[in-house]
Amino acid sequence: MVENNEKKIEFTILMPCLNEENTIGICIEKAQKFLKENNIVGEVLISDNGSEDKSIEIAKKLGARVTYEKAKGYGSALRKGTQEAHGKYVIMGDCDDSYDFLNLEKFVEKLRDGYELVMGNRFKGGIEKGAMPFSNRYIGNPVLSGIGRLLYKTPIGDWHCGLRGYNRDSILELNLKSTGMEYASEMIVEAVKHNLKIAEVPTTLKKDGRNRPPHLRRIRDGFRHLTYLIKHRI
After folding, report:
1. Which ranges of 24-138 would DSSP assign to H, the alpha helix?
2. N vs C: which end of the chain shows fewer Cβ within 10 Å?
3. Cα separation, 23 vs 34, whole angstroms
4. Ramachandran region of residue 156, left (φ > 0), alpha (ψ -120 to 50) or beta?
5. What would the pLDDT profile of 153-183 be if each residue is shown by its tens digit?
């Protein structure tokens, strides 16, 4: 009976989580509302990475499915979530309420049209004042995305957007290995190398709802992205 229900799921909205009790609830509710209003048979899946607050209690209360990844890291949580997803397609995004889970239509359209990786572009969709640090918005992201375009001959404009959709089987076949933030770059690099059909759509970014510093460490994680791009260049 469970197996039959799983086969009906078309989309999994996947959220990696590490102590997001302040925002996980609103993110789940928005994702569920999007699925319902667009008549999409889907699920919200939380990939927990060791939360010690009430995140998982909230997620379960709202009806989200939860999977657990003990190995630390953004990449580890997303790899586990992708493996455990029941949907043919996955749309991933952080549960800090910075991404717009109410407006995923463009991702859905492109995936149904046969694209295997659909990237969000925050620079085209709009970045709310205060949502991205000055150094990230005008230096870090543009420079790293520019290096990525140059080395990998792809027009993707926002390499580090965390809101993206993909065909689950296509991404699993890439056998991605990164455990940290550089997972975001590895996904694009391997998709390009394996000639996956890639699209980019505008999306928005607003100031997150956290009451603590973000998990992202700008200098350290930026260097890890840069190292990965250079090391694995075509």
Report:
1. 24-37, 55-61, 74-84, 105-112, 122-125, 134-135
2. N
3. 17
4. beta
5. 899 999 999 999 999 999 999 999 999 888 9
The domain that holds 151 is classified in CATH as 3.90.550.10
pTM score above 0.85? yes
Looking at residue 230, what is its pLDDT?
Answer: 72
Compute CA distances 10 → 22, 43, 95, 200, whole Å.
Answer: 28, 9, 21, 21
Closest CA relative to residue 116, chosen from 39, 159, 34, 173? 173
Q: Rounded distance, CA 204 to CA 202, Å? A: 7
| Angle value at C-alpha 148, between 168 and 206, nearest 5 degrees | 70
**159 vs 184: CA distance, rounded Å:** 8
The length of the chain, given as a count of residues: 234
| Cα→Cα distances 234→2, 167, 191, 194, Å | 43, 23, 12, 11
* CA–CA gap between residue 213 and residue 10 (Å, rounded): 34
When divided into structural domains, the chain yields a total of 1
Supply the range of the domain harboring residue 68: 2-231
